[in-house]
Amino acid sequence: MADFLQTLITAITLGALYALIALGYTMVYGILKLINFAHSDVVVLGAWSSLTIAAFLLPRMGQDLDHPAGWSAALVLIISMAVCALTGIAIERLAYKPIRNSPRLNALITAMGVSLFLQNAGQLQWNVIEGVTPVVSGKIVARGTDPKTILLDQPIALERSSHYLLKISPAGSNPIERKVTADPGEYAAQTPILTADPIGRAQVRDATFTLVSVSTPLNLPFGKMPARVPTLVSEDRPAFEHRFTSTFTRPDGTVQTVQKPLRISWVHLAIIGTSLILMLALDFLVFHTRLGTAMRAVSFNMQYAALMGIPIDRVITITFVIGALLAAAAGFLYGQMYGQLQQTAHYAWVLLGLKAFVAAVVGGIGNIRGAVLGGLLIAFIEQFGGFYGTYLFAGASAYTDVAVFVLLILVLILKPSGVLGSTAQEKV
Q1: pLDDT tens per residue, range 194-229
Q2: Structural domain includes residue 419
Q3: 0.85 surpassed by pTM
Q4: Based on the structure, what is the number of domains in the chain?
């Protein structure tokens, strides 16, 4: 029971991510009949921009990246969504709008070009945060009574969200470094400052110092891959944990009791809750607002909608913005779920985008509710196929991706319009 429920929670969580990405594909296709292959790269942009914003902004707001305040996740998500929304507008205006009336092959090639551009642009390197930042310099007065303390001639302030290092330069000797372990706060001149290791008296004689703030260098693409993502959703303790006890008899007649835990983390709840809110908001927007009526009218017939006074360009731009917002949320939640991000052109991102596209096709490309259904269906096949497949043969979990694309082939053969899609009838 524990294994089944744990697999179910994981499947729902992963399915919510697939659904968010698939919604972007299906909305653009519903309006323009265009497969926007660059959409998955906007997801990557959402993940990396979330990491950049968190690492750059939160420490400057006094937040520790290891234990930030609860509101920090919402702040990072909102800013990341704004970044991706602007990117979505730029993609639509600069790449797709000039060829809107061109043959579909032109639009398809353009979409692939935009995707490659975003992938490769994400691999450019530039510094966002320096690894070492000087804070104050001066002379060392003396060593304290404790060999690990030191007296400086300058007042210093230690912030809770930073780590500090003393670079000591004795006269006529090699420089040394000591990690500062004093509590955060303001220290007046000649106040004992605690360090991690003892300091010799000869090392402080006629010596100067430089206090530096040490942080993890933040580069794009963040140096070594994969990059660790700050845990903005609390993982100190699970949201729910229960242990299931099962008893079975071994072949030798002995009775053995096994306990298996069911663990639901705050990340699971955050992903499911955020995805559900965004999906319901999108459903309400499309089916219960004037803007949604205009979007459905444009998807039905763009020329007729223009004759009815609907601003086509504005509706298309808003569609790209909504898709980018959902992509940003998916990228942010993906980073929180897995705790690390791969390079922008890594195959993991490509596979994620392909699975979301499969979800959109299986559910019915152009159908919003079908995209959600397709995302959940793909995730259930992956998780339960991998779990129960191991009872059939070892290594079954390695073939879950094969099962996903086999499902795509079956759907295209048996119901090409998708599970919830409707077959378009054209008169000859």
Answers
A1: 998 888 888 888 889 999 887 655 555 544 455 677
A2: no
A3: no
A4: 2
